[in-house]
Amino acid sequence: MFIGGEWVEPAGGHYAVVDPATEETVGWAPEASTEQVHAACAEARAAFDSWSRTPAQERAAVLARAADHIRARLVPHAELAQAETGATTPTARAMQVGVAAARFRRYAAVEPAEWAIAPQIGEGGRKGAASALGGGGVLGALAVRQPVGVVTCITSYNNPWANPAGKVAPALAMGNTVVVKPAPQDPLSVYRMAEALDAAGAPPGVLNVVCGRSVEVGEAAVASADVDMVSFTGSTAVGQRIAEVCGRDMKRQLMELGGKGAALVLDDADLGSAVAGIGTTFSFYSGQICTAPTRVLAQRGVYERLVEQLAAYARRLKVGDPRAADTVVGPVISAAHRERVESYVALGRKEGAVTVVGSERPDVERGFYVAPTVLADCTNDMRVAREEIFGPVVVVIPFDEEDEGVALANDSDYGLIDYVWSADVSRAFRVARRLRAGGVGVNTVGRNMEAPFGGFKRSGVGRDVGSYALHAYSEVQSIVWPG
């Protein structure tokens, strides 16, 4: 593990990291003890004072050098990420390692951390007799962003480069120190990120990486008295547990949790655009993304055509070896997760859904593959429509009137990213404003990487990405003085 600038042997030995495409061992990940996790947190605490007082330009220079280090090793880093996750080659290169390098580069740009507030001019009272409450005189004020302190970053398995980079880079840019606890399924890439920051000149203790499969490792990284904030990406159930622990000590939280994105396809929509957007996103990374539009709400006038075209799109998706150039859908992360996804498909049929495509497991000898699946004639009360499956499975639900579609979209425990397709842009924007989701794509599944990202309801707490990530990893301090 990487603790206090040193590579440390794990107290709990090692465990195998398995390639989900071949079922072969990729490498061996360290199993930390709770004592080693606490030691990592203590190292981060010891490094905080110096790092937080390091000029922002110097911190930015470290991030820039780390970005260059990652970019220069893009191919071998992507090969490791692919072996750990089963991602296709384009995904591993562009969306995993490439995005990680871009995020370090993004936060190497220094942004103002303070801004003036309009002076308060008191009325009445004797000249110069400003009270403790500012009843008279002139008071100037400055709002200053200060680092939170030590941040524990617990990252998801679906992107072992971009997800940690999206936490580590802005946290370090703001002057925080970090302990990263990567997902146990694919932690090896995060150690390459640690190597990059070490080579870039990050002082000892500024970044620490601990790893382990046991629940105790994650809980120690959250509960440590040295930790001031927890940034987590993962399931809502785990997020709730982390929130309970953080609440006892009033620790700051940034939570990116589950999603069950609704895609409203209105009766005047361009069906080709809608099908392409839904199809590419629900199958991307084998559906293991929280932003996927896995709950398609189709207005009755286009419902039958949409189901037919979406099924045809799913049938054309090449499933297989993620290293092959023509593969679109690789494996899911593990055998256990494959069983979970398949059990949801079986449950959907039991609930009355019709499997239009994807009824059988792909014919491959090895690997944890799931066929892209379209379930039609669904209702919003089915479990397949309400619970996050996290696989290449989409459910299609018909509706009649626009108000009904909005109500169905909002009838969910989740509210991360929704989508609207309509040829009438003003209508689409009107519908988008009514959706209870942290983000809405209008006639697109694309994302603006400076736009705030986060969810309503059980999809999370807080916002990150762009400048919003700098806000998330900082506290605001007011400094007031007499004018």
From TrEMBL:
<dbReference type="InterPro" id="IPR016163">
    <property type="entry name" value="Ald_DH_C"/>
</dbReference>
<dbReference type="InterPro" id="IPR016162">
    <property type="entry name" value="Ald_DH_N"/>
</dbReference>
<protein>
    <submittedName>
        <fullName>Aldehyde dehydrogenase</fullName>
    </submittedName>
</protein>
<dbReference type="Pfam" id="PF00171">
    <property type="entry name" value="Aldedh"/>
</dbReference>
<dbReference type="InterPro" id="IPR016161">
    <property type="entry name" value="Ald_DH/histidinol_DH"/>
</dbReference>
<feature type="domain" description="Aldehyde dehydrogenase">
    <location>
        <begin position="7"/>
        <end position="479"/>
    </location>
</feature>
<dbReference type="InterPro" id="IPR015590">
    <property type="entry name" value="Aldehyde_DH_dom"/>
</dbReference>
<comment type="similarity">
    <text>Belongs to the aldehyde dehydrogenase family.</text>
</comment>
<dbReference type="GO" id="GO:0016620">
    <property type="term" value="F:oxidoreductase activity, acting on the aldehyde or oxo group of donors, NAD or NADP as acceptor"/>
</dbReference>
<keyword id="KW-0560">Oxidoreductase</keyword>
